[in-house]
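Assess this one:
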Amino acid sequence: MSVETSATLSLLLLLISLTVAQDCSQPCACPADPPLCPVGTSLVLDGCGCCKVCARQLGEPCSLLEPCDHHKELYCDYALLSDTETGICMAQEGQTCDLGGVIYRSGESFQPSCKHHCVCMNGEIGCVPMCASDVRLPSPDCPYPRRIQIPGKCCEEWVCEQTPRDHLYQSLVARASQIHPLPSSSPVSVFRQVSPHGPVEESPRDNCVVQTTEWSECSATCGMAVSSRITNDNQRCQLERQTRICMVRPCDSQQEIEIKRGKKCNRTPKATRGMRFELSGCLSTRLYKPKFCGICTDNRCCTPHATITTEVEFHCPEGDVFTKKMMFIKTCSCHHDCPQDNDIFLASNTRRMVGDYDSNM
């Protein structure tokens, strides 16, 4: 290779590195419409705070302009590659998920079947359907619509049949009436006119016997965590798992100094100043002064006893806003039934949090 060629290549590499380094110093030039991201992929701001891009997922290459999905607690690890401008999206330490004996890491996306796309987030599995759930009503040109499974395709599709499959007798009567029609008969009269707002159907909730379990204990003894319950209190009267975020106490608190002289426990301390909750890099839009569960000096532990559940609104750096149900502590109880080695999953599940109800704070 000639000296002139080497000098040209060196100059070109220098210009490229300078361009990359100065990306954030240049004016933002974003497309008019944000990109369409795959199902389960967040739309986030790039590292310069300019344009919204599809977040990089676990194991994918990342950079300043292609950040990792912070909603899934992923971060860009630049130490894995020799290129200092490019890294690999890695998951922060979090609880794994077990689905059918298969273990998924926190932040990992997967498809347990062709009909669902799921993601593991710190022990919780969230899924979105990949198949459409549209409903086709009977019409004169399609009197008996039916979903069928087509070989080679994942999602069921609608087909039109002229006679019902399980009503041969009715089809024979219908054919006879066409040969000798009654004076008032009309081929279209069997179809009820549907209002523009759709048919009025009886809701399954009308005859639903509501059953709801108690909220489970918070999944961590400090910091933001998750609590769940099973209920059929919904329009379909079907059992579903509901979750709420919770915080028993902050991880960086020094509650032992707040125990009064002559006392062994600080049972339910309250935040002295307003604070914002943080969830996946997003902050609550309001300031709160929540109550927490304290600590004891005689080997007892304090856990929530009476709680309420309310909606908390979060605002993300890229401008997105969402709400989450969150547990707020009213009172705590201190006892000797403590988790071993501070492991909340080894605690007894017999303790119940009483008086819990939804609240509009």
Remarks:
- Helices lie at 3-21, 168-179.
- The CA atoms of residues 81 and 109 lie 23 Å apart.
- The chain has four domains: 23-91, 97-129, 135-162, 211-341.
- The longest strand covers residues 301-315.
